[in-house]
Each structure stands twice: as structure tokens, then as C-alpha cells.
């Protein structure tokens, strides 16, 4: 019997200013360790392919095995693993008592396994999980970024190694999801590295679950995949990758080959895996319209995937925690996004604990099952059947805006959020989640400002200037923390709170100058209302910076609260203390100081003073990024909205 190899701790190279990481095996001597009590948790390896002649070229066969010595080879004394799901992209079978499987061959398919809890598949040198094999006998043909080389005839066997993992068996798991890294060049990849990706490199709480990249990992130029791999190679756990619309081979003839380069470099375009008590599913929600319609696509889940999903879920208990991650979200607070959303919801209807997670829109949303919206109903979704989370974006608003003190673009998103990463947290059978803003602590959850008539007037002028490609003189900048006495008397001047952890069942309270707190109004509560859109539903803190530079302002948000400021406040500076309580009972408190002045002339003077204090004069001397990402279809759509 072979013994499991125990490796010493070795340090990995660091990421810029990020702390160096170590990937650990248990610090035990080989003689004192056994496979049962000290399994390695992360190891380098690959899928084993036997290129001999297949006994039946119409059948795909092989074994899933316990790779005890971690050499990626099925050795004579290594055992197969029973009950592991294996798929050809439509059919799903489970391995027998010897770990063997048999599947029908499809001409263009990716065969993959579903990692069970208590096990860990190998990773390559960049930490990308290895659990699949592409079968494309004739190859992709002449694609700019390579595609898949001809794989030839059906191999004699494809064997999938795994090792035991105590960590992946635990019910307590943290599972980060990094969406829309979407770098269009190496400069932007550097922003990602020194921002949200660097934050992940500094964390050591997700080793078993690993990191899921949720599509639009690069911005059309697939040669940047090497850079992407490099920055994510510092993760402290396996990396799994989902595709987005900007990860496609746009010179492919049709959708069947649009992800060939992605499949070659990262793995299947849809797959599943288990960690702890949670079943993760990744789907491809982009349907490429073909070379003749270059770069055009639909947000849609193919019928093959829906069939596969039905087959995949047959192995999952109905009461299990399930995550279905798709690049394009099934819906957002604005609209139903995926064309066949109803068909998808029918497939997961028997899984009440399923949550869907998306990216794509560069927004950060948490929409709770049971909510209703006028726009959803018009698209046939009368009530949200499953919680939908939109995971924000590593790139924020496509790396736009002036550079902050860390030399990174502000990239405030159109829905009043910031660049960051979503983490799903599991404690046994229950789930919570948090959104961690780039270079900030988990407690950074509130963005505060004053939305007044004068600010709304300035915002419209600034938007008109943006829409005219900044032709002419920009409107004189004002601070969103100044309000005139007249505006207060008119009413409709609000203290706004963009509560990143906020949901329809969260609570926000505001105390002005230490007085009894007032409960804030949620602008988009999901009670059947239409989209609340306009300057009066906008966070002035993030919108002001975007309107001064090059960002988008959507004039709506799923996580904005507002409280009318008392009309009788005296002239001078006042303090508002805001406490947001999320649906899990976690409290977050921030304060903002704002100034009441006599008239518009005083407002202009006070604004310039505050802007200088806030450093905006200095910021404008720094680089203002208006990168190619802002020319993407998503960004143009956001502007049109």
C-alpha cells in the first residue's frame, strides 16, 4: 500500500504590495501521518489520458481514483472512488464500486467530474482546478487565440485523480466569487492584482472551497488569459473559472465553438462541484450569435445545459444548499436578463434553498426570494422564486474614474457600489454572504451623502456634459455634503445611504446630531413597484465622483435608503450617524458631516472648501482612466439606461 506524500510548507511569491502566501500541507513527518488523518489539501496534478485504442469508440470510459501518491497516475494499488458524478455535458452517470464510468461519446464535448465533499481535485501550476477532458476530434480550426487542437479518436480511458480532503468535508465554508475582472490590457490587470485580487491573496479562509471567477475574466483579448492566470495563481485554494461574453472566440463560426479557447485553457463552460454541504453549479448564460454577427450575443441558457442541470440535480437532495452561478444573472433589480428564465426556474423548482449568483452588469445586488417587481411580472416572473445575488465586479465600473490614493481607479459602479468580491459563507446548513470592497475591511458597508435639489440640478448638467463627450466647460463642481437653508425648507432633501449589505428585509436608521434615530426608506423594496429611477433615487457620493470623471450613473440601486433631513436645522455643520442592520442581524455604523448654508453663493464657497479638503483638486491632476471597458456593450447599455 502506498503512503500519502506529506510536503513541507513552502512560501509562494507575493503579489506586489500584497503579503506573501504559503500553501500548507500538515506539518507532520511521513512516518507519523496516514492518509486518513492528515490528507494534503491542495496538490498539483492533471487528468490522466490513455491514448490507446478505445474498445468501443462510441463509449467514453475511465476511472475516478484516489491518487494517494499524488502522481496523477492510476497505479496498481490505488483504489477507484464510487458514487462520483461524471458527465459528457448532457448525460450524468455515477461511478461504480471500482470508480469506473461509461458515457456516450458526443462529437464536441467536455467530460468532467463533480468533485464530492471530502475530496479535492488537483490543480495546475496556476492553481486552476483540473477535472475535465475536451473531446474534439478535428479540433477548432483556425481561431485567432488557438481554440482546441485536434484530440483525435476516442481515447482508451480518461482517469480522474482526486485526494481526500478533510477541509472540503466541513460544513463551515467560505466561498469567494470574483466576477468581471475584465482587464482590457496589462495596466488594468495590474489594477486587479493590486485591488480585489490582492485582497484574496491576503486571505486564508477559503482554501477548501477555492475561488470562482464568474466570467468576463478578460476583455475580448484572450492573449491576456496568461496574465489572468498569473495574478490568480496566488490564491490560497483552487481556482475554478466560468466564461462570460468577453471570454469568447469571436472569430468562431457559431456558439458551439465560441468557447473553445476558454475550454482549452480553463475547463468546461458548465460544471458542478460539492464543498461541505453545498452543491455548486456553474452555467454558461451567454449564447453567441456567430461570426457573421461579431460580438453579438443573447443572455440565454442552452437546452443542453438545462437537460444536464436536470440530470445533475438528480444526485442532489431536494433540501440541500445549492448555488447556481451564471455570468449573466437570471435577473436584476431592473429587469429579467436571461431570455429563458422561466424554463430555468422550472428546472430548480424543487430546490427551495437554491440561490442564483450572477455578474455581467457590474452591479452589486441581493434580491430576496419572494420579492415582486413590475418589470419582472411583465417578463413572466410574478414572484422571485429563489434569491438572486449579483456579485459586483473586481473591475468595478470598468476601471474608470480618477485614481485614488492607492493609485487605483475609483471605479464606483452605476448602482452606488465599489470594486470588490462576494463571499458566500456556510455554517453547516445555513448560508450568509458578504461583499468585501477592494482594500477595505468587511465593515465597510455604507456610502453616505446628501441628495438635495441643488445637487440634482448640478448632476443633470454634469450628465449633459458627459453625454456631449465633455464638449464645452464642465459645470462648476459642488460638494454633495452642502445644502442650502432654502433646499431644506422645500423638502425632498435626503440623507442617502448606499448599504452594500442591504436587502429588502434589512433596516437602516439615521440619527441627526445625536437625536432619536429615524427609520430610512428603502427606495426599491421589491413589493411590486416599478423601477425607482431618477436623480432623486441616486447616491450623490459615488455619482458625484463619476460625473466629475468618466464613470456611469444608473440613477437607481437595489440597496439605497434615504431619510429626509429635518427642515429646521440651523446654519453650520451637522452630523448624521447611520446604522444599517442586515438580514443576519449584523450592524454597520458610519457617520457623515454636512453643512447647512444660507444660499447658493455660500454653497459654492463651502463646496470648494470641502472639495479641497476631500482632495478632489489633487485627484484631478492624476490620471483619469476612460478605458476600453467603457466602450463595451454593458457600459453603453448602462449609459442608455
From TrEMBL:
<dbReference type="Pfam" id="PF16371">
    <property type="entry name" value="MetallophosN"/>
</dbReference>
<feature type="compositionally biased region" description="Basic and acidic residues">
    <location>
        <begin position="602"/>
        <end position="631"/>
    </location>
</feature>
<dbReference type="InterPro" id="IPR013783">
    <property type="entry name" value="Ig-like_fold"/>
</dbReference>
<dbReference type="InterPro" id="IPR032285">
    <property type="entry name" value="Metallophos_N"/>
</dbReference>
<feature type="signal peptide">
    <location>
        <begin position="1"/>
        <end position="35"/>
    </location>
</feature>
<dbReference type="InterPro" id="IPR051918">
    <property type="entry name" value="STPP_CPPED1"/>
</dbReference>
<dbReference type="Pfam" id="PF00149">
    <property type="entry name" value="Metallophos"/>
</dbReference>
<feature type="region of interest" description="Disordered">
    <location>
        <begin position="602"/>
        <end position="641"/>
    </location>
</feature>
<dbReference type="InterPro" id="IPR004843">
    <property type="entry name" value="Calcineurin-like_PHP"/>
</dbReference>
<feature type="domain" description="Calcineurin-like phosphoesterase">
    <location>
        <begin position="211"/>
        <end position="363"/>
    </location>
</feature>
<keyword id="KW-0732">Signal</keyword>
<dbReference type="InterPro" id="IPR032288">
    <property type="entry name" value="Metallophos_C"/>
</dbReference>
<feature type="domain" description="Calcineurin-like phosphoesterase C-terminal">
    <location>
        <begin position="390"/>
        <end position="588"/>
    </location>
</feature>
<protein>
    <submittedName>
        <fullName>Calcineurin-like phosphoesterase family protein</fullName>
    </submittedName>
</protein>
<dbReference type="InterPro" id="IPR029052">
    <property type="entry name" value="Metallo-depent_PP-like"/>
</dbReference>
<dbReference type="Pfam" id="PF16370">
    <property type="entry name" value="MetallophosC"/>
</dbReference>
<feature type="domain" description="Calcineurin-like phosphoesterase N-terminal">
    <location>
        <begin position="76"/>
        <end position="135"/>
    </location>
</feature>
Amino acid at each position: 500500500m502506498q503512503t500519502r506524500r506529506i510536503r513541507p510548507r513552502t512560501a509562494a511569491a507575493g503579489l506586489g504590495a500584497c503579503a506573501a502566501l504559503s500553501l500548507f500541507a500538515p506539518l507532520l513527518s511521513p512516518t507519523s501521518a496516514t492518509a486518513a488523518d492528515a490528507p494534503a489539501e491542495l496538490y498539483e496534478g492533471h487528468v490522466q489520458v490513455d491514448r490507446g485504442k478505445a474498445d468501443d469508440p462510441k463509449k467514453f470510459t475511465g476511472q475516478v481514483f484516489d491518487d494517494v501518491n499524488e502522481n496523477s497516475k492510476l497505479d496498481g494499488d490505488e483504489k477507484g472512488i464510487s458514487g462520483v458524478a461524471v458527465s459528457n455535458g448532457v448525460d450524468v452517470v455515477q461511478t461504480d464500486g471500482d470508480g469506473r464510468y461509461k458515457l456516450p461519446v458526443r462529437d464536441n464535448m467536455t467530460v468532467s467530474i463533480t468533485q464530492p465533499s471530502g475530496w479535492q481535485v488537483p490543480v495546475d501550476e496556476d492553481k486552476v482546478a483540473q477535472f475535465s477532458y475536451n473531446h474534439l476530434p478535428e479540433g477548432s480550426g483556425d481561431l485567432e487565440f488557438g481554440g482546441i487542437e485536434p484530440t483525435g479518436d476516442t481515447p482508451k480511458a480518461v482517469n480522474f485523480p482526486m485526494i481526500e480532503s478533510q477541509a472540503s468535508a466541513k460544513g463551515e465554508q467560505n466561498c469567494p466569487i470574483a466576477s468581471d475582472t475584465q482587464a482590457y490590457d496589462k495596466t488594468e490587470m495590474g489594477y486587479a492584482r493590486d485591488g480585489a485580487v490582492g485582497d484574496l491573496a491576503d486571505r486564508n479562509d477559503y482554501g477548501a472551497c477555492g475561488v470562482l471567477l464568474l466570467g468576463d475574466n478578460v476583455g475580448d483579448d484572450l492573449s491576456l488569459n496568461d496574465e489572468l492566470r498569473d495574478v490568480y495563481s496566488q490564491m490560497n485554494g483552487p481556482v475554478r473559472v466560468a466564461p462570460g461574453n468577453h471570454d469568447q472566440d469571436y472569430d468562431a463560426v457559431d456558439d458551439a465553438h465560441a468557447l473553445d479557447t476558454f475550454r482549452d485553457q480553463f475547463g468546461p463552460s458548465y460544471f458542478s462541484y460539492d464543498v461541505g454541504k453545498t452543491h455548486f453549479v456553474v452555467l454558461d448564460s451567454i449564447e453567441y450569435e456567430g461570426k457573421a454577427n461579431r460580438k453579438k450575443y443573447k443572455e440565454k441558457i442552452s437546452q443542453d445545459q438545462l437537460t444536464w442541470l436536470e440530470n445533475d440535480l438528480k444526485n442532489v437532495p431536494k433540501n440541500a444548499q445549492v448555488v447556481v452561478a451564471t455570468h449573466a444573472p437570471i435577473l436584476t433589480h431592473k429587469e429579467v436578463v436571461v431570455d429563458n428564465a422561466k424554463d430555468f426556474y422550472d428546472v430548480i423548482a424543487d430546490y427551495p434553498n437554491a440561490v442564483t449568483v450572477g455578474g455581467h452588469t457590474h452591479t452589486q445586488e441581493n434580491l430576496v426570494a419572494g420579492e415582486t417587481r413590475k418589470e419582472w411580472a411583465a417578463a413572466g416572473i410574478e414572484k422571485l422564486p429563489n434569491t438572486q445575488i449579483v456579485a459586483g465586479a473586481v473591475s468595478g465600473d470598468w476601471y474608470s474614474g480618477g485614481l485614488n490614493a492607492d493609485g487605483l481607479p475609483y471605479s464606483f459602479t452605476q448602482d452606488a457600489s465599489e470594486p470588490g468580491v462576494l463571499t458566500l459563507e456556510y455554517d453547516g446548513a445555513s448560508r450568509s454572504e458578504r461583499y468585501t470592497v477592494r482594500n477595505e475591511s468587511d465593515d465597510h458597508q455604507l456610502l453616505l451623502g446628501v441628495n438635495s435639489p441643488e445637487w440634482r440640478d448640478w448632476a443633470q448638467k454634469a450628465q449633459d456634459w458627459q453625454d456631449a463627450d465633455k464638449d464645452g466647460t464642465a459645470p462648476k463642481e459642488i460638494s454633495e455634503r452642502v445644502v442650502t437653508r432654502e433646499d431644506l425648507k422645500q423638502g425632498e432633501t435626503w440623507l442617502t445611504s448606499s448599504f452594500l449589505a442591504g436587502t429588502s428585509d434589512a433596516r437602516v436608521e439615521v440619527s441627526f446630531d445625536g437625536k432619536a434615530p429615524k427609520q430610512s426608506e428603502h427606495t426599491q423594496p421589491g413589493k411590486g413597484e416599478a423601477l425607482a429611477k431618477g436623480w432623486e433615487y441616486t447616491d450623490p457620493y459615488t455619482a458625484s465622483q463619476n460625473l466629475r470623471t468618466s464613470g456611469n450613473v444608473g440613477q437607481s440601486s437595489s440597496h439605497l435608503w434615504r431619510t429626509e433631513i429635518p427642515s429646521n436645522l440651523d446654519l453650520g455643520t451637522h452630523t448624521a450617524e447611520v446604522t444599517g442592520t442586515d438580514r443576519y442581524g449584523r450592524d454597520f455604523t458610519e457617520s457623515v458631516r454636512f453643512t447647512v448654508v444660507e444660499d447658493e453663493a455660500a454653497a459654492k464657497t463651502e463646496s470648494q472648501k470641502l472639495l479641497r479638503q476631500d482632495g478632489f483638486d489633487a485627484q484631478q491632476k492624476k490620471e483619469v482612466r476612460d478605458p476600453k471597458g467603457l466602450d463595451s456593450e454593458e457600459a453603453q447599455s448602462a449609459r442608455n439606461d
